[in-house]
Amino acid sequence: MYESQVTFTLDTICPWTYMAKKRLDQALAKFRSSPMASSVSYTLHFAPYQLNPNFPPEADRLQWYLDNKHFGDATTQQVFQAHMTNIAEPLGVALRFDGYMGNTLHAHRVVQYFQSSKGPETANKLIDALYERYFERGEHPSRDEVLIGACVEAGISEEEASKVVGDKEIGLAEVKAKLREVSRDVDAVPVVMVEGKRRDITLTGAKEVEEYVKTLEKIANEST
Fold first, then answer.
1. Domain annotation covers residue 147
2. Which of 26, 164, 170, 187 is most buried by its number of CB atoms within 10 A?
3. Known Pfam families for this protein (predicted)?
């Protein structure tokens, strides 16, 4: 069986990456239940990207979007929220638009550390927990208590999570290097890259479930 890595490049505060992750999860589940699953094993790997590396530690989300994305126009903001809600609902996601935003460096640091030390399954659960907390509960994306709670949801002990989250130097140099590396090739997220025997296929933007399925099937067909 061919072992393929699916690299998902994201920022934990980007709604389009959340939608893409939900759709990719559905596509992977569909592929894994098909006869083609015997030819390829897909492992999800996460690469960090910061939409705004200079973002402050904390900002009111509604106000920040109003000022920085919608030019102070409340109607435009309402249209955006309605549009995103319509996209999210079929995926089982109840989006919230209130709460706090913040710099995501330490969220990425924690994800990358545990991806390296605990493996892809734990990293996947951690990403899902962070997404849900930010987009569906309105929680800050990188406060210590939020990161620790997400780690515990992912199966990491509270003691180990507290140590890694609390010591801001653990994994910091590594994640900064990875962010620099990723930013050389990526200027928008999400990006999904599927490795194949003959070629890699890269999809930019939040694609529909069927497009992810077709890509997984294409790689499988080329890998036999």
1. no
2. 164
3. DSBA (PF01323)
